[in-house]
Write a structure and sequence with these properties.
- The structure is a homodimer of 246-residue chains.
- With 246 residues, the first copy, chain A, is α+β, with helices and mostly antiparallel strands.
- Chain A has a domain of 164 residues: NADH Oxidase.
- Helices cover 47% and strands 13% of the residues of chain A.
- Chain A has eleven helices and five strands, in the order H-H-E-H-H-E-H-H-E-H-E-E-H-H-H-H.
- The first copy, chain A, has a four-stranded antiparallel sheet, with helices on both faces.
- The first copy, chain A, is globular, with a radius of gyration of 20 Å.
- The N and C termini of chain A lie far apart (44 Å).
- Strand 5 of chain A pairs parallel with strand 1 of chain B, so a sheet runs across the interface.
Chain lengths: 246, 246
């Protein structure tokens, strides 16, 4: 539990490699976690080859972690393998739809997160690349993902080069709800975000970006409406291409 | 790592309660896990009240765990709180779209899975209810989830009543891929599913359901095309209702 409490996202890695033995052990451990109907609706593509990292880099907006980490893992929602099994066993599969995509997506993220927890306990550091669902089609093409396989999330992993600071978190009572969702009043919002807004680092972000508030750094620069709408269209197009929606 | 390797899904619980102190500690630990842009796009609704469990029960097809577990947790994708914050800070939010839903959904599942790992390490047992996305609208109504909040997954948690057997898993090399996705040949499929198909328990399922193959138990009974298509429509309707797609 201590390694879960003290964790930090690690974006800088030593050039030390991760042995296949350790990596396989961590992956096998992660595959023990819960999965929909014990179908294990995921696959993991392991990237170690520098040339492949170079190819994946633009899909992840050239975040440095992808090229400096010894190992990059793309966890994929995978109903393709299961569908092939069905077809080979005189069973008629019905997994070319959105619900099935979401089942596989949950399975992939659960396995990915268990991998992260296990890796951190073993002294490794990880970073999620949320960019995976931003440019799914590029990743599909590079990793040659067939129909009913979709990249869910990417994890860079390696031995940490230094110990980064721990990120702030919202107060617990700003996230949990007793019995029913208690919608937030303006006073609640002020209270919940007060600590985050007080941090010197976040005040610097505001100044650097010549904004008035921290929220504006998110809405105007980091996660804009325009980008989100374009990415939503990309996502849907790739879902169609991979056969999960019609 | 040992508790991750040895884990089993627990569906039967002792009547012993979980203290708020322990529960809060586990939740706080889970909120240390990775989150998109440190936005923490999730909320957790805690159900302890037997009356609320009774109400939630039909949404989960009356799975017994929901009424016998001392605590039921509904992890929700939540862009509502963040959007309220933006609106209160002269920032124009753009999170009423599919990409934002998926970002929040990933965040919710990552936190849920870290909770499970921490709970298991603390001697508790958990069970995921995948039914959460089958009847989202029922859960939205019961838990009073506002716009831009969506139930992602539900976990029942309690002290285990007995130690269930460990479920089988596919062989590691049936799930991982080096550098590129190596699509499965018929021989690969036979090999990967051989152990699962050999299990007495699975042979019994085939006989009980008067089917020819285990795959047919999945396609004809457990996860049918007809159900998946109806559930996909339900899901999309609820996504629209909660403001994530138009």
């Amino acid at each position: 539990m201590e390694s879960m409490k003290n964790r930090r996202t690690v974006r800088k890695y030593l050039s030390k490699d991760i042995s296949s033995e350790l990596l396989n052990d961590l992956l096998e451990t992660s595959f023990r976690s819960s999965t929909t109907g014990n179908m294990q609706l995921y696959s993991v593509v392991i990237t170690r080859d520098p040339e492949m990292k170079e190819k994946l880099s633009p899909a992840h907006y050239h975040q440095p972690a992808i090229k400096t980490a010894p190992v990059v893992l793309t966890f994929c929602a995978d109903f393709g393998r299961f569908t092939k099994w069905c077809e080979q066993r005189r069973a008629i599969p019905g997994y070319d739809n959105f619900q099935s995509f979401m089942n596989a997506f949950i399975d992939a993220v659960i396995a990915a997160q268990t991998f992260c927890t296990a890796a951190e306990e073993a002294g490794l550091g990880i970073c999620y690349l949320g960019t995976t669902t931003y440019n799914p089609q590029m990743i599909i093409d590079i990793l040659k993902l067939p129909k009913l396989v979709f990249p869910a999330t990417t994890i860079t992993v390696g031995y940490p080069d230094g110990i980064p600071g721990q990120a702030d978190r919202l107060p617990l009572n700003g996230i949990i709800h007793d019995e029913r969702y208690n919608d937030y009043t303006p006073a609640d919002i002020d209270r919940i975000y007060a600590y985050k807004e007080s941090l010197a680092e976040n005040r610097r972000f505001i100044a650097e970006n010549t904004k008035e508030t921290l929220a504006q750094v998110f809405t105007d620069i980091r996660y804009t409406k325009k980008d989100n709408e374009a990415l939503s269209e990309n996502f849907m197009k790739a879902l169609r291409q991979q056969g999960f929606i019609s």
